[in-house]
Specification:
3 strands; globular; 4 helices; single chain; 32% helix; alpha+beta
């Protein structure tokens, strides 16, 4: 089940990028945040909109789409960390797997 911020991220990225593949993973539980938080996400996306673009331009595209979520409300709400793994459809076809996120050094013990 997706939570509100995660669901919003999925909907916005689907609309803006029309991805061939999209995963939005809430990794907040791996960090030192309250239970049920939506602050740390991993996005894995393959879209034709990334064709001919370098990694920085691809990231900028996603940041622009998720401006509100990254900004938060100014009270600690919103997305704190966003791991992006962005591919063209042909790059994804040759890979089909994104890197595993490293453990958080400040995670709960």
């Amino acid at each position: 089940m997706q939570n509100p911020i995660q669901k919003t991220i999925v909907l916005k990225l689907k609309e803006a990028l029309a991805p061939d593949h999209l995963e939005v993973i809430n990794e907040s539980a791996n960090h030192n945040v309250p239970a049920g938080s939506e602050s740390h996400f991993k996005v894995i996306a393959a879209s034709r909109h990334f064709d001919g673009k370098r990694a920085v331009a691809r990231h900028q595209m996603v940041y622009q789409v998720l401006t509100q979520e990254l900004k938060g409300s100014g009270q600690g709400a919103g997305v704190h960390a966003l791991a992006l793994h962005l591919y063209t459809p042909s790059e994804w076809a040759g890979q089909q797997k994104a890197p595993v996120s490293p453990p958080c050094l400040g995670a709960k013990k």
